[in-house]
Amino acid sequence: MRTRVKICGLTRPQDVAAAANAGADAVGFVFYEPSPRSVSIEAAAELLRSLPAFVVATGLFVNPDRELVERVLSKVPLDLLQFHGDETPDFCNSFPARWIKAVRVRARGDIERAFQDYHRASGLLVDAWVEDKYGGTGQSFNWDLIPSVRPLPLILAGGLASDTVADAVEKVRPWGVDVSGGVEISKGIKHAAKMTDFINEVHRVDETD
Ligand SMILES: O=C(O)c1ccccc1NCC(=O)[C@H](O)[C@H](O)COP(=O)(O)O
Q1: Is the CB–ligand 1 distance for residue 123 below 6 Å?
Q2: Rounded to whole angstroms, how far apart are CA atoms 44 and 91?
Q3: Ligand 1 center to residue 151 CA distance, Å?
Q4: Is 209 a residue whose pLDDT tops 80?
Q5: What is the ipTM of this complex?
Q6: Residues 94, 118: contact at Cβ < 8 Å?
Q7: If you measure from the C-alpha of residue 94 to the centroid of ligand 1, how many angstroms do you get, rounded to a whole number?
Q8: I need a surface site. Which of 2, 10, 25, 207 has the fewest CB within 10 A?
Q9: 6 lines ligand 1 (CB under 6 A)
C-alpha cells in the first residue's frame, strides 16, 4: 500500500508549491492563533491558490468556536478539517466537510477509545501527548500503544523526520503520516529538500512491501 503523506503548518506559497512538487498528498493550514504556524483566513485563501489539483487542503483547528470554522469554510475551499483539541464527536460532525480527529496518546486504550468515540471521522491522527500543548511539538510517542485493529485510516504524527519516518512506516504501517517540525528550517518555514527527502523515504519503504 502507498502511505499517504501530509505536510502540516505551511505559511508560504513557495512551501505549498514545494510540498506539492515533492509529492505531498495533503497540506495543512493552522487556524489556531497561539501557534507560530497560524495563518489568517485571508492568507490561507491566498495560499490555496498555489495548490495544484489532487492535493488535499486541510484546515487545522484547536477547540474553535463554531463561528470560526464556518467563517473559514466560507472563505477557504478546504477539503478536510482536522480537529486537534478536545472537540466532541458531535461538534466535529456538525460541519459540511469531511474531518479527521487528532488524539494525543498517553496510555494504552487512548486510541481504541478515540476510534469508538470518533467513528464518523475520515481518519484518526495519533500524536504525542505533551502537557499543555495540543500538537506540533516535535515529540514522538511509544508506537507500541498503537493497536493493529484500526476501524478508521490511522495517520501517524509526532516528531517524524526523514531519518525516522522509514522506521515508523515499517513498524506501524499507518494509512498516512503527518509531519511539521521535521521538515522545517524554523517554525512555519518549510525546507524544500527536507520535504522531498521525507516523502522519498516514505515511498522507499512502501516499495519494499
Ligand atoms: O503546528 C502547531 O503549532 C500546532 C499547534 C497546535 C495543535 C497542532 C499543531 N500542529 C499539528 C501538526 O502539525 C501535526 O499534525 C503534528 O502535531 C505533528 O507535528 P510535528 O511533531 O511537529 O511533526
Answers
A1: no
A2: 23
A3: 23
A4: no
A5: 0.97
A6: no
A7: 23
A8: 207
A9: no
Please report which residue ranges of the chain form alpha helices under DSSP H: 13-22, 41-49, 66-75, 89-92, 110-117, 165-172, 192-207
Cβ atoms of 195 and 27 closer than 8 Å = no
At 166, the amino acid letter reads A
Neighbours of 14 (CB within 10 A): 12
Alpha carbon nearest to ligand 1 atom 14, residue: 136
pLDDT digits (tens, 9 = 90+) for 122-179: 999 999 999 989 988 999 999 999 999 999 999 999 999 999 999 999 999 999 999 9
Sign of the dihedral defined by the CA atoms of residues 111, 196, 184, 31, in that order: negative
The amino acid occupying position 174 is P
Cell numbers found for residue 94: 456538525
Does the beta carbon of 87 sit less than 6 angstroms from any atom of ligand 1? no
pLDDT digits (tens, 9 = 90+) for 173-202: 999 999 999 999 999 999 999 999 999 999
Q: How far is CA 12 from CA 29, 183, 200, in A?
A: 10, 14, 22
Q: How many C-alpha atoms does 92 have within 13 Å on its Cβ side?
A: 28
Distance from the CA of 84 to the center of ligand 1, in angstroms? 8
Say if ligand 1 is within 6 A of residue 105 CB: no
Domains in the chain with CATH codes: 4-207 (3.20.20.70)
